[in-house]
Amino acid sequence: MFDENAYLEEIEALLAAHIPQKESLQARLFEAERYSLLAGGKRVRPLLCGAFCVLCGAEAGRSLWFASAVEMIHTYSLIHDDLPCMDDDDLRRGRPSNHKVYGEALALLAGDGLLTKAFETLSCQEARETCGSEAVARAVNCLAEKAGDHGMVGGQVIDLNTEKNEAAGLDVLQAMDEGKTAALIEAACVLGCLAAHAGEEQIRAARVYAHGLGLAFQIRDDILDVIGDKNTLGKNTGVDVQNGRRNYVSLLGVEKAQQLVESYTEQAVQALSVFPGDSTYLAEFARRLACRMH
Ligand code: GRG
Fold it and tell me: Is the CB of 117 under 6 A from ligand 1?
């Protein structure tokens, strides 16, 4: 069974180790990167990566580089998402947003640095020796695809286009959430399978799980923007209404949106039946996220 606490400790240590602390001409950049990366997010994506690796029959430790890389991409997206040209938000992970502390130029570069460092981490010598070059090459390809135009960045563009667009219906919202949130979650799950050298049927099932969990996660995020508490969440609430953003809550209301969260969560859980191993952790994880308050 996957040991969540032990894995989290290893992830924190690896993330910290990847950003230099010594004096250098770029010390302020590294400080800005550390500020957001080590600010204590939930580490949902690394946990998914580690848990899938174990479910596919390998030691969790094999997936650490892949999981850290996904968390670096996620953290870069949060830094950029808070910039004045995006959500213009001043609070993240319970602290002032990166650009509020380091300024817009350095926040932009800290995001760029983390995005790039993700691929350095993913393909480092230790990862190649542990997982094999074929798995690393597939992981690089998957992460680039899911973080890019056809994944997270593309989803964010749909989000920008959807603001104040009265014509955007549920199909557009689904495409937006699949891109901006579910795609990176899919990469996390697939990378866990790749670290374990899983077969194609298992990778396909991991994608189905990630799709359900990813959509449920984003809709719950939209609900928390309405019913959540700023101190518990570590970020501002009411942001979507303030930005005139259309999402499942603005279209369906909180109650119907939560029904969708639960239905997508159960779709995710169903996908786990393909795996011969004990999938209790990933089933419970999905259900825990469906009623999370932060
Ligand atoms: C500006 C080129 C450029 C790209 C930016 C900003 C961006 C691309 C994408 C944004 C994607 C985004 C922020 C999606 C929201 C996903 C989401 C629900 C984030 C919150 O994740 P949690 O709750 O956060 O896992 P923690 O802090 O716990 O890690």
Answer: no
